[in-house]
Design a protein that fits this description.
Blueprint (H helix, E strand, L loop, with lengths): L1 E2 L7 H57 L3 H13 L7 E6 L5 E4 L12 H9 L3 E6 L6 E10 L5 E10 L1 H51 L6 E2 L6 H49 L6 H31 L8 E3 L1 H18 L3 E5 L8 E3 L1 H18 L5 E9 L2 E8 L30 H11 L3 E6 L5 E8 L12
Parallel strand pairs: 1-7, 9-11
Antiparallel strand pairs: 2-3, 2-6, 4-5, 5-6, 8-10, 11-12, 12-14, 13-14
Helix pairs in contact: 1-4, 4-5, 5-6, 6-9, 7-8, 8-9
Length: 485
């Protein structure tokens, strides 16, 4: 049969995919934005600085060649130049004396003030054009200043011509350019994420489908097929899963048929052995040792008969021939009869059964009395077999509406935690299972309880030993919640 499966949660794969692909793009874009910002900062600042230096050099060369012959000429020329300066709305022009004090200014700064910036000192000391970027102390505004020395015709420095411009507009351009770059990178990231989401969905959906199919096969749904809609490596994987499912189903069918056939073949001779053994053991013509040997034969024949019955029950469950005779039963009476049946036998082996009956009246429940008694006897047998060292088995019955619970606990070594989830699987025998057995008993018990709409919980008890809880619904319309430990 073909099955189309829903997509389970696969956030882990999605996160790893996005982390490995998107993160690379994100880091690349961050590096690009930083480089872009540094480029614009450098380009804008260099452009402004070059313009101011070019303007300052042209003006100072003119002063040196044609105007500044004496200090009086220098002052008169500086005054006229300041009055006619065309860029006063964008640039502050200052003429500064050799003592570092302002002589003239386009913004009307009082003569005698001393701007504190290193470009003035460097220009006076080196005789070369010098620039500086910083903050204007009175206003806190970011500015750029360029200072160029003015020389007399004899080469002596007469003063400094200083251009000062605000970087507010430049910084605004840089911020806007950076924001534009960030917006572009954000759009690129959204595009990359969208593409990755489409790509990852095309991978996650089939992987999720295959994963769920594999889980169903692992739980025993052999033979189911997944619809193959892919023509790539995923399609090859689907074909492999489908082929595996079919082969496992075929192997299970052959195994079930073989077990059923062998079980039926063993049933007849075992019945004959048991019958003749029971006949011979009561014969007065046999001596004591012979009767002891026949008793051993009977015990082993009964044990083999029980294994054969369990195998037959399981094959019936596997091929759908297992049925229950449901009627209203007294579960307390069935449990007490099972304890009574086993108590004397276990007492001979030194194992005591302590039964705690339910303190309140136990209602009748729908069930198959013989099958539930089979469950109780099997669980008591397992508790005695694997918990024999504890010399004690505790049995209790409780009404926990909407179900009744039967708890059977031994005081043996228990089961390793990594085996708890496997011990109810067919033919599985735990590492602590020293006794002989088919490994099918718990699997049959679990199926019988499940057919009743109940649940069998298996866990290690506090203080040692294994505790098995059988929950059975009080009415046929109640389903027991699956809350396995």
């Amino acid at each position: 049969m073909e099955l189309t499966l829903k997509r389970p949660y696969t956030g882990g794969l999605r996160v790893r995919w996005m982390r490995s692909s998107v993160l690379v793009v994100l880091v690349t874009l961050i590096v690009v934005i930083l480089a872009f910002t540094l480029f614009f900062v450098s380009n804008y600042y260099t452009t402004v600085q070059t313009g101011l230096e070019s303007k300052a050099k042209t003006a100072t060369d003119f002063f040196a060649n044609y105007v500044a012959k004496t200090y009086g000429d220098f002052y008169d020329s500086a005054y006229r130049y300041t009055e006619s300066f065309d860029d006063s709305d964008k640039i502050l022009l200052q003429f500064i004396g050799t003592d570092g004090r302002v002589i003239l200014s386009t913004y009307g700064i009082a003569a005698g003030s001393s701007p504190v910036s290193p470009d003035i000192t460097q220009a006076l000391q080196s005789g070369q054009i010098s620039s500086w970027v910083g903050r204007n102390r009175p206003t806190g505004e970011r500015i750029m200043s360029v200072s160029a020395p003015i020389r007399f015709q004899n080469g002596q420095i007469a003063g400094v011509m200083r251009y000062v411009t605000s970087l507010k507009i430049v910084d605004r351009h840089i911020i806007m350019s950076t924001l534009a770059g960030v917006a572009l990178c954000a759009l690129i990231m959204l595009f990359v994420i969208s593409i990755n989401l489409v790509l990852i969905r095309s991978v996650i959906e089939p992987v999720a489908e295959i994963t769920k199919m594999s889980k169903r096969i692992a739980k025993g749904s052999y033979g189911i097929q997944i619809q193959n809609r892919y023509k790539d490596e995923i399609g090859d994987m689907v074909d492999a899963i489908n082929e595996m499912s079919l082969k496992i189903a075929q192997a299970e069918k052959v195994q079930t048929e073989f077990i059923s056939s062998i079980s039926h073949e063993l049933r007849t001779p075992l019945t004959a052995i048991t019958g003749w053994g029971e006949t011979l053991i009561y014969s007065e013509q046999l001596d004591r040792e012979t009767k002891k040997g026949i008793a051993i034969i009977l015990k082993e024949a009964r044990r083999l008969t029980k294994m054969v019955e369990e195998l037959l029950d399981f094959t019936r469950m596997e091929d759908g021939r297992f049925t229950l005779n449901i009627e209203e039963i007294d579960i307390a009476a069935e449990l007490e009869d099972s304890i009574f049946t086993y108590r004397e036998l276990l007492h001979q082996d030194g194992v005591e059964i302590h039964y705690e009956p339910c303190p309140e009246e136990v209602p009748l429940i729908p069930g198959d009395a013989s099958r539930l008694r089979q469950v109780f006897l099997n669980l008591l047998d397992n508790a005695a077999k694997y918990g024999r060292e504890g010399k004690r088995i505790d049995v209790s019955l409780k009404v926990e509406k909407p179900y009744v619970s039967v708890v059977i606990r031994d005081y043996g070594p228990g089961v390793p935690e990594d085996e708890i989830g496997h011990i109810r699987m067919k033919f599985y025998k735990g590492s602590n299972a020293k006794g002989r057995g088919s490994g099918i008993g718990l699997a049959v018990c679990d199926e019988i309880v499940r057919f009743h709409g109940g649940q069998m919980l298996i866990e290690n008890a506090e203080g040692g030993g294994l505790r098995v809880t059988v929950r059975l619904p009080i009415s046929s319309g109640v389903a027991v919640e699956a809350d396995e430990p």
